[in-house]
Specification:
single chain; 573 residues; mainly beta; six-stranded antiparallel β-barrel; 29 strands; 14% helix
């Protein structure tokens, strides 16, 4: 308890100062008081976690480094719910299905599974975690070319033991290395010229900070804020919109091991994925096999992410997962959530989710069951309604092929996309339904996949998709990728063909050109539509801190041509 006293004193001083400042500002500029408080309070939390913490002498290291015995490490560059993004990809030797280990103080803090790869980036699912992950954490992995079996020990156990032996820091250096403030600051610009003389100009700013191991290892803090200024012009006039969105602003009080923790502020939880962002408190106890948690708070305003008290919610969950070092990894969680909108029942539901990962198969399942009462029951809703189902199955067939299938009828899915393209719009529109497919890796240079999907909803529909890729060609690691997709229903038919070619002209760089065509026909009205696009993208990492990207796309449609240009730069702190 004594470890929390400095935080109490800091919070008292900070809130007293903010209260005094707000009182003065209220008289001069009352509309800006809320904005000032929303910005200053999260910064105070991050500063508290960073207070009296020695600088991280290793933060300037390369994002990917060789350790020994064939192991490498890569830094976490971004976090989004249960998804973790690493600064390493296919060029560094990662492959889909690989395991990466997060290590702290000589012990395993989390296990990640690689689910999607680009040349220098990897998206991973969190298999399990004993502590909150942060941007800048090191993940240990073995490149494919150096994987070797350990006699008498399963691969999963061998990976864990070797990773701990290779990259585990000494206890004397753990506090000085891990206790730090990490993050990134970035700026981007987007311009769209649409048919009819309409234009959009949007400069934007984003900042992400994570303070860890403050107050002798008892305090973590996080801030993620993004602001933008949008100017729209057309024949009828001009519109200016300017605001900031806070995606995370929280502080976590915990024990040194991270098993017991209280998180306050704006936050999200992988276990409470259906709740998404909320402003409030989350109390958790995480053991070696069992975890429980309870939360309460309110949903932010959906448009501008401001604090709002209109939708208030609370809930609890319990989770059970595999024992440490188990070869088969699994987790099962269940809970219940109740929300009220202006003192009326909004939604009450129970949820269950789980996954199982082994050599034989990968399975994931999430299900929600709504409990309808009050005005919903009066309106004719059933007492229990099965809603928002998601299931997926992946079964390896030999060393180079895998079968996959699943079902998805979720009404809303929060997608984090940097840019919408005709291809992503095609996939999002026909997302719901059941699917089955196969993926094949011919050798280190070739891969292909195919999928068949039956839509769910009021009408029957079916979709086919096939993708082929040649990669890591020549010294520039050139790639060629092609895709064909088709959708058919009683009301609509649609097809898509896309091609892409790219290369890495320098280390930690990538250039890519893409083109494609999408055709859509309304079967009832006989209306046909065609869209053609041509795009170019470039990414470049400068040293260990700076990252620059740019791209443009020209879309040709019956209504006219649309030109979209974007550029961005970010620096890791």
């Amino acid at each position: 308890m004594r470890a929390f006293l400095p935080m109490t004193a800091f919070a008292h001083d900070a809130l007293t100062g903010l209260r005094t400042g707000c009182a003065r500002a209220r008289h001069a500029c009352p509309r800006r008081v809320g904005v000032a408080f929303a910005l200053l309070f999260p910064l105070a939390l991050v500063a508290a976690a960073h207070a009296a913490v020695p600088a991280d002498s290793t933060s300037a290291r390369e994002p990917v480094s060789v350790v020994r015995d064939g192991w490498r490490t890569a830094r976490i560059s971004y976090l989004a719910g249960g998804s973790v993004y690493l600064e390493a990809g296919a060029a560094e030797g990662l492959a889909t299905g690989d395991t990466a280990w997060i290590l702290r103080g000589g012990a395993r803090a989390a296990a990640l599974r690689v689910v999607f790869l680009s040349t220098h980036r990897a998206s991973c699912d969190t298999l399990w975690t004993k502590a909150r992950l942060a941007i800048g954490d090191a993940a240990a992995f073995r490149p494919g070319a150096t994987r070797q079996a350990t006699p008498g020990v399963s691969d999963a156990r061998a990976d864990s033991l070797r990773a701990a032996a290779v990259v585990a820091p000494s206890p004397a250096r753990t506090a000085s290395r891990d206790a730090s403030l990490r993050g990134r600051i970035g700026a981007r610009w987007l311009s769209i010229a649409a048919p009819g003389g309409s234009r959009l100009s949007q400069p934007a700013f984003e900042a992400r900070f994570d303070g860890r191991e403050g107050l002798a290892g008892h305090l973590d803090a996080s801030l993620d804020i993004r602001g933008r200024r949008t100017l729209r012009t057309s024949e009828t006039g001009r519109w200016l919109e300017q605001y900031s969105r806070v995606y995370r602003a929280s502080a976590t009080l915990r024990d040194v091991g991270g098993g017991r923790r209280l998180t306050l502020g704006r936050q999200s939880s992988p276990t409470l994925a259906s709740v998404s962002l909320f402003d409030g408190a989350l109390l958790e106890w995480i053991g070696s096999r069992v975890g429980v948690g309870t939360f309460g708070g309110s949903q932010p305003d959906p448009l501008r992410s401001r604090w709002s008290s209109e939708l208030v919610e609370a809930g609890a969950y319990a989770e059970v997962h595999q024992a440490p070092l188990a070869e088969e990894r699994w987790s099962v969680a269940a809970g219940a959530v109740a929300s009220r909108h202006q003192n009326e029942v909004d939604r009450e539901f129970a949820f269950a989710q789980g996954w199982w990962f082994s050599r034989a198969a990968t399975v994931s399942l999430a299900q929600e069951v709504d409990v309808n009462r009050g005005w919903k029951r009066t309106a004719g809703e059933p007492t229990l309604a099965w809603t928002s189902t998601f299931a997926s199955l992946r079964v390896p067939v030999g060393p180079r092929a895998a079968l996959h299938s699943g079902y998805d009828n979720r009404r809303n899915v929060r997608l984090w996309r940097d840019r919408e393209t005709p291809e992503t719009q095609f996939d999002d529109r026909y997302r719901q339904g059941a699917w089955a497919g196969v993926s094949v890796t011919g050798n280190e240079y070739t891969s292909a996949s195919g999928e068949y999907r039956v839509g769910s909803g009021g009408e029957r529909s079916e979709a086919w998709s096939a993708t082929g890729e040649l990669h890591r060609l020549t010294a520039w690691r050139a790639l060629l990728r092609g895709r064909w997709a088709s959708f058919t229903s009683d009301a609509t038919t649609s097809s898509l063909v896309s091609l892409a070619a790219g290369c890495d002209p320098w280390a930690r760089s990538h250039v890519e050109l893409s083109t494609g065509v999408r055709r859509t026909r309304d079967q009832v009205l006989g209306f046909a539509d065609r869209e053609d696009w041509l795009g170019a993208d470039a990414d470049l990492a400068l040293g260990a801190r700076w990252y620059v990207n740019a791209g443009c796309e020209r879309l040709t449609a019956p209504t006219g041509n649309t030109l979209q240009v974007q550029a961005g730069v970010s620096v890791r702190l």
